[in-house]
């Protein structure tokens, strides 16, 4: 796994040593939902368990993955950050969409997920994919290094959304695209699991993102999405 070791070392280097023109992320003040990521930070994380939960037809974004990738409208040469890549569901289609001249940064805070993506990269020879171990308040990518940031069923796991969004905005080129897919949280309509697990609804998340320096371009309606919404923002 020489490629994975290099990727993780790169991630640590980017985080530990200032890049010219890169500002440090603002100090985090208080978690908006303490402990929500505890299971993913567990050194004994059972990756197979999460593959069975994430990569099954019963999961809406898994069923909708082809529509989601098409809606992103990626072009050859694009650089995309898959923020919270998890088990790597979108890694292969993103790699194909951006081509040899593009780049996919598969980011996650869970070392074991990063390790799995590294194995996928090696097995499938995805030479344009770089796994990166990110932080809970910083995605650890240099300024202007990506054209697209993709956050699928992950935004509600941001413990420090303001700091995380600041780091995403810095990593994006001016006018870059931010896509957020997350659960509709509507009391009386959404599942009990969603109401208990997701801290806020679409309007709150949209406001947080706009306050971080993004503007809403559209809310795309994908036929395969019922429990989730798809928001497309532009970096100001």
Short characterization:
This protein has one domain (2-14, 48-235): Vaccinia Virus protein VP39 (Rossmann fold). By secondary structure, it is an alpha/beta fold. Helices cover 37% and strands 21% of the residues.
Task: Describe this entry's structure for a reader.
The structure is a single chain. With 236 residues, the chain is α/β, with parallel strands linked by helices. The protein has a single domain, classed as 3-Layer(aba) Sandwich (Rossmann fold). Helix content is 37%, strand content 21%. The protein has helices at 2-16, 38-41, 47-54, 60-63, 65-72, 91-98, 111-124, 161-171, 192-197, 202-211, and strands spanning 79-83, 103-108, 129-133, 146-152, 172-183, 214-220, 228-235. The chain has a 7-stranded mixed β-sheet, with helices on both faces. Helix 1 crosses helix 7 (111-124). The longest helix is centred in the first third of the chain and has 15 residues, at 2-16.
């Amino acid at each position: 796994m020489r490629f994975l070791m290099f990727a993780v070392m790169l991630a640590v280097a980017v985080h530990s040593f200032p890049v010219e023109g890169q500002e440090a992320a603002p100090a985090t003040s208080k978690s908006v939902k303490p402990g929500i990521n505890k299971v993913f930070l567990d050194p004994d994380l059972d990756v197979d368990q999460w593959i069975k939960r994430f990569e099954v037809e019963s999961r809406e974004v898994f069923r909708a993955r082809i529509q989601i990738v098409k809606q992103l409208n990626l072009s050859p040469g694009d650089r995309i950050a898959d923020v919270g890549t998890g088990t790597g569901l979108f890694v292969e289609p993103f790699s194909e969409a951006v081509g040899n001249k593009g780049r996919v940064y598969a980011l996650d805070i869970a070392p074991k997920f990063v390790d799995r993506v590294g194995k996928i990269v090696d097995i499938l020879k995805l030479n344009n994919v770089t796994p990166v171990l990110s932080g809970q308040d910083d995605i650890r990518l240099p300024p202007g290094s990506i054209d697209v940031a993709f956050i699928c069923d992950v935004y509600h796991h941001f413990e420090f959304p303001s700091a995380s969004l600041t780091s995403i905005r810095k990593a994006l080129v001016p006018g870059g695209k931010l896509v957020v897919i997350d659960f509709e949280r509507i009391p009386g309509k959404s599942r009990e699991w969603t109401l208990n697990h997701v801290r806020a609804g679409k309007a709150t998340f949209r406001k947080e993102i706009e306050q971080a320096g993004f503007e809403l371009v559209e809310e795309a309606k994908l036929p395969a999405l019922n429990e989730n919404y798809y928001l497309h923002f532009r970096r100001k």
